[in-house]
Amino acid sequence: MRSSPRLFARASKVSHETADSELPLTSSSFEDENRANESWDLGESDAPLQVRGLTKAFGGFKAVSAVSLDAVAGQAVGLVGPNGSGKTTLINVVTGVYRPSGGSVTFKGRDISGMPSHRLCRLGINRTFQIPHPLGDLSVQDNIAVAHASSRSSQVNFDADPLQFVGLESVANIQASFLTSSEQKLLDLARALATRPDVLFIDELGAGLSTRELEHVAGLLRQLKDAGLALVIVEHLMDFLEQIVDTVVVMDAGSPIFRGTLRAAIADRRVIDVYLGK
Amino acid sequence: MQLFQYAVINGILFGLFFGLIGIGLNLLFGVMRLVNLAHGDLIVLGGYLAYSLSTIAHINPLWAIPLSIPLALVLGFLLYQVTVPRLKRAADTETASLIVFFGVSQVLEAAATMMYGANQVTLPSLGGPIDLFGQLYPSSVVLSAGLSIPALGVLYAYLYKTRLGLSTRAVMADEHEAIASGVRVRFVATTAFMIGIAFAAIAGTLSVYMLGGINPTTGSALTVTAFTVIIIGSLGNPLGTAVGGLLVGLASSLTQAYATEWTGMVPYVLLLLVVLLKPSGLFGGKVRRA
Fold first, then answer.
1. For residues B265-290, average pLDDT
2. Which of A151, B113, B149, B228 falls 20 to 30 Å from B21 in CA-CA distance?
3. Tens digits of per-residue pLDDT, A43-79?
4. How far apart are CA B99 and CA B158, in angstroms?
5. Cβ within 8 Å, pair A146-B181
6. pLDDT tens, A233-257?
């Protein structure tokens, strides 16, 4: 009796390693018989941020259902899926906007499930918003200064000036409410970077940007990845995503239905069914 | 011309004081969206402290200013802990806070009546009149207005020159964005609340001089004046409050000089005009959202 947990641990580790060779980042949350090997129990991993079996229910509606995800330093995961598939809700739960209904989030071995956003920010987890709300009464510079005030010493090799990095240094002294919507999106990214995160969630940064702006932003995100940040990117624009991500997780109705490269995802039957209908 | 000059200087003196009574109220509204209907009564509480020091302890009532600050900070902390976390959970914080602080206001007013009676209390004059540009003004008025300037300056320095002040302005601009930037909103809000109450206490001592005396119902009148000042100058904007105070002071003083019977009405006509012509207040800006 005594040795059984130990045996179990060993067995799960083996299954994790096999899964690892095929899917470097994550495995599915589906407890489907066909994909029994994609159990959500990833076992141990050295990814700094580990999401395990995360569930968020609003009343009887499960917006996010048993999702597991690893954010690995120097890698980018794309989170795709039709509208309402739970991508933003997942980000909101992980970054402390909502409390999870089940499952766990650990960061560097510490359980951070349900921790409020400002504390996560100080630990090294931040996000950008689908619709940015800059501090409109403050100058662009002061928006960054607010975030700087809560920055931390990060292990990530990124110490560029956030405004220069995103290319907003020429409007640094302008009141933030006067920025165009794409400038507000860049400011939101700079704001998140000023807190010096290890893990950064990007929620539809590309939506509404012009082709040139998209190229610029894709370049920025690649640089962040190379600097060692762990990125999780929610996006509908596949061409944009292809330039950045290593793998994607496709979600439908709150659950992941596919994990792998973006190329493989586009060819996958289940993914096509979700997007185009059966 | 002499009358005009007198009215303008008198208006500026009162305007500085009005700015001071508005600033604490605006800090509470700006940071936490709290409608503090008890603001005037908290000011009067500070006034009664000065009165007690003078009559019971027989020391200079101006000592009430340094004494009332730590007391107000403690009172502010307790009042925050009791009311604000619950108010923030309410579906409509602004309306709920209006009702709660109306209750606080009534309690303070009743307590003041019990302790000090319904009659006006006054403080002895601080000395002879002071000459400003060739005309004489009561020394208590000049001194009170003069003390408003460093008080407003201290708040300005706090908001614009310190880190915590920057975080405070961030919370004023957008609470959720501030949270995303790592600002500890609860700490910032508690501090702002305590400072707001401390400013009410400072204004309290000065109010006895500026108004010639206080009684338990003075608080409600001061609350109305303070709201007029901050709405004219824009809710949530501390610089606007100083300007709003000066405008209300000048408007009252000029009407007092030229059309005395209209004095009670003019500040509110000014308020109506501002609300009709520029509903966000003189310093309220439009915000463009992405």
1. 74
2. B113
3. 566 788 999 999 999 988 989 988 999 999 999 999 9
4. 30
5. yes
6. 999 898 899 999 999 999 998 899 9
Helix (H) or strand (E) holding A278: none
Task: Give the ipTM.
Answer: 0.75
Residue B283 in any domain: the answer is no
Asked if A77 and A234 touch (Cβ cutoff 8 Å), the reply is no
Question: Any chain A CB within 8 A of the CB of B290?
Answer: yes
Task: Find out whether A190 and A144 touch, Cβ atoms under 8 Å.
Answer: yes
Task: Look at residue B37 and tell me whether its pLDDT is greater than 90.
Answer: yes
The domain in which residue B99 lies consists of 21-225
Closest C-alpha among B233, B266, B226, B273 to residue B250: B266
Q: Which of B23, B32, B35 is nearest to B155 (CA)?
A: B23
CA distance A91 to B236: 31
User: Structurally, how many domains does chain B consist of?
Assistant: 1
d(Cα B30, Cα B24) in Å, to the nearest integer? 10
Residue B282 lies in a domain: no
Q: Which residue of A has its CA nearest to B169?
A: A138
Q: Looking at chain B, which residue has its C-alpha nearest residue A135?
A: B173
Q: Name the pLDDT band for B199 (thresholds 50, 70, 90).
A: very high
Of residues A190 and A37, the one with the higher pLDDT is A190
Indicate whether B14 belongs to any domain: no
Q: B205 lies in a domain?
A: yes
Q: By three-state DSSP, how is residue A165 classified?
A: helix
Cβ of residue B159 closer than 8 Å to a chain A Cβ: no
Q: Which among A117, A136, A147 is the nearest to B287, CB-wise?
A: A136
Q: Which among A92, A146, A196 is the top mutation candidate for probing chain B, defined by the most B β-carbons within 10 Å of its own β-carbon? A: A146
Q: List the Cα angle A129/A155/B176 in 5-degree steps.
A: 25
**Sign, CA torsion B101/B103/B105/B108:** negative
* pTM for this predicted structure: 0.81
Give the residue among A274, A259, A267, A264 at the shortest CA–CA distance from A69: A259
- Chain A nearest-CA distance from B6, in A, is 37
Mean pLDDT for B160-174 is 91
The reply to whether residue A127 touches residue B180, judged by beta carbons under 8 angstroms, is yes
**In chain B, which residue's Cα lies nearest the Cα of A119?**
B182
Whole-number average pLDDT of chain B: 88
